[in-house]
Amino acid sequence: MRLMYPFVSDRTRVVHRLGERLRPGGTLVVITPVVEHTPDEQRGIALDEDEIGLLTEGWERTERFDADRLAVLILRGPCHTGTRAVERQRPPTGLAVTGALAVVTDEAGRVLLGRSRRGVWELPGGKSVGSESFEAAAVRELAEETGLIAEAENAYVVTTLADAAGDVPRLTAVVRITDWSGTLANPEADKFARWEFFDLHGLACVGAVFVPAAQALDAVWPGVVPGLPPVVVSYPLAVEQPPVPGEPAEAVRLRQAMAETVIDGGWAPSRPVRDALRTVPRHRFAPEVNLANAYDGGDRAVITRRDETGATISSVSAAWLQAEMIEALCLNPGAIVFEAGSGGYNAELIAHAAGPHGRVVTVDIDPWVVGRTRRFLTEAGSGRVSIVEADAPLGAPARLVPRGGFDGGMITYNCWDIAPAWREQLAEGGRLVLPLEIGGYTRAIAFERRGQVLHARHFTYCGFVRDQGQQARTIPVVSLLNDGLTLRFEHGPAADTDGLEEALRGERHEIATGVTMEAGAYFGSLQLYAATTLPGFCRLAAQQDPDQGVAGIAKGRDAPAVLGDASLAYLVSIQTKDGKRREDKEWEWVVHAFGEQGPQLADQLAVTVRAWDRHVRADDNSKHADPVLTVHPAGTPDDLLPAGDVLDKEHCRLVVRWPGRDALLPRPVERPEAGVVTEGV
After folding, report:
1. Nearest to residue 242, comparing CAs of 402, 382, 404?
2. Which of 281, 370, 428, 504 has fewest C-beta within 10 Å?
3. What is the rounded CA–CA span in Å between residue 116 and residue 662?
């Protein structure tokens, strides 16, 4: 950038975007006049030390040379400046201060910030005068500081923030401006160096931001400014605010590309879902990531919230999965749908697919997620989505349940169980789509209600965040061999493992199943088949490298297993062929077993693998057979259940019937403990 940096509009944003595009160690060179060698009448083309400091902040390495009274800045990247909220050097005076901050976006959805002479970024705004309303104060300050003109009727108080600067209480109104006119200027050059529009995802790396401005940005787009201290008391106001338009042309292009990727993959065959993907602005519901990540057409989800351990607790799911689950609802125009697990984008997709008379009721237990979703729906929604803070297994509030029940229901987090309210609030013939954990393996299953029974109609391999409400379940885990191995009991309580560690130190028994697979082969149906047909099923996980333990399981991976009396058998894949080409590689399923009952358990597991290979598996990964699955209320007597393998949960009984298992049914067995798979009920 030679002799042109001072003339760049939104220079901080532009340089940051350039820095994002550099490889590690990549270089940006800026050659610029400096104030000390520039006549007063030409100071506008030169940089002072504050501007140079801002330009060089966040780069991995910087160098500066002087040449012919010019500054040559060597900036090596990539560039990232962490955002931090700071106070002004001089605290306010008086008994208390009230003021308003204006949140303004341009036609590309970028937010306006000013670089103040105090060295921090600020929103337009200031103290209110006399009996002036917050709305009036915001539009007045906007005009005085930036030259932009807005009407009070287009100004909406989103919330008021209460904190203190030093010993002075401070009440700040966050005012969202939905429409404005004029040309951006800098009338108060003594207070501000310049004004710039920033991408929302860029707010994570702008450096120092005035505390009330940072809190105001977070009030409009919760989570967009990371690491804010919880020092502000917020009083959200229930005001009607129209959606605020604005997106860059790049967002439109990327959205169409994402939609085409999903459509080409076969996940959106219907016109309503296709139109929803092409229309609903996904990036508006994930402002903390750049457009490329927001519109990733692959398998990427956008993580929007983590717990204190770093685990994901809220996200925007992959677009293909959202499309397929919405397709599985089989919505008619005007459908009313219940959604559990909020975020806004998925609900808007459903509302769009249901047409202009459709409606969505979305529920979430996390107040932060509810507040965030409500703001995003206000900013970019259709007005056809209602959000409620509640524990989703309780269903929707009665006042929001349509007469006859919801036309569809969608759960967007992993469910170990199926809440009775989800069935009871579903209309006869309506569909419930949810990611159900079976043996620890998750499938998004579309169920159709017929009386009190849910009938599975469609299965999709997937993974979601875990439940946080009253149905949340901690999986019983038993550690073995100094935590080198763990057993996970996905179906019920932990079984007796006395004597198992001694067995694991003994001889290992192995059986080759004769069942092989090539690179890229799908074996998720084998995991589900084993989990639903094998008594004593559990999962064996390794916390150490294969050469350091007895199991031969890769560190961090797990294997389907069967537990006996001080005995264990589990399934691993062993590479039997190698080659330079992917199609030359091959693996075989092999059973490892320990303990006195190990050979019998290994035979049982090997027979299971071979039965799966004969009756379930297909050469085409997308053609594996699905089981016939029905879900019955807990307490349904055995003699009223259809034939199949039964898996009991707290609120329901699952009956699974796979192809090829007819010959095994019915076969009487003794009733086991709740949660254990049985045959021939």
Report:
1. 382
2. 428
3. 76
Round to whole Å and give the CA distance between 547 and 530: 27
Instruction: Round the average pLDDT of the chain to a whole number and report it.
Output: 90
- Separation of alpha carbons 551 and 600, rounded Å: 18
Give the helix/strand (H/E) hosting 262.
Answer: helix 249-264
Model confidence over 419-459: pLDDT tens digits?
Answer: 999 999 999 999 999 999 999 899 999 999 999 999 999 99
Q: What is the average per-residue pLDDT within 380-403? A: 95
Q: Which two tokens stand for residue 483?
A: 């935590």
Tokens representing 660 are 């090829």
- pLDDT score recorded for residue 589: 95
Q: In the structure encoding, which two tokens stand for residue 560, read together?
A: 């389907």
pLDDT band at 681 (very low <50, low <70, confident <90, very high): very low
Q: Which helix (H) or strand (E) holds 235?
A: strand 233-236
What does the buried/exposed string (b/e) look like for 258-277 if buried means 16 or more CB atoms within 10 Å of the residue's CB? Answer: bbebbbeeebbeeebbbebb
Task: List for the chain the helix, strand, coil content (%; round to 5).
Answer: 25, 35, 40
Q: CA-CA distance, 332 to 358, in Å (whole number)?
A: 9
CB distance 273 to 287 below 8 Å: no
Element containing residue 288 per DSSP (H, E)? none
The predicted model scores a pTM of: 0.86
Long-range (24+ apart) CB contacts under 8 A made by 302-309 are 304/223, 304/343, 304/372, 305/223, 305/366, 305/368, 305/369
Q: Which residue has the higher pLDDT, 535 or 471?
A: 535
Specify the length of the chain in residues.
Answer: 681
Q: What one-character-per-residue DSSP string does 177-225 give?
A: E---BS----S-TTTEEEEEEE-SGGGGG--EEEHHHHHHHHHHSTTSS
Cα torsion through 671, 673, 675, 679, rounded to 10: -20
Least confident of 153-157, 511-515, 673-677: 673-677
Query: Is residue 205 a contact partner of residue 132, using CB atoms and an 8 Å limit?
Result: no
Q: What does the buried/exposed string (b/e) look like for 147-178 if buried means 16 or more CB atoms within 10 Å of the residue's CB? A: ebebebebbbbbbbbebebeeeebbbbbbbbb
In contact, 628 and 644? CB cutoff 8 Å: yes
* Residue 640 φ then ψ, to 5°: -100, 0
Residue 257, token pair as written in the block: 């590309």
Statement: residue 47 has pLDDT above 90: no
pLDDT digits (tens, 9 = 90+) for 544-578: 887 677 888 888 899 999 999 999 999 999 999 99
Q: Which carries the bigger pLDDT value, residue 66 or residue 84?
A: 66
The pLDDT-based confidence of 149 (bands split at 50, 70, 90) is very high
The CA distances from residue 534 to 156, 537, 590, 608, 641, in Å, are 60, 6, 17, 8, 19
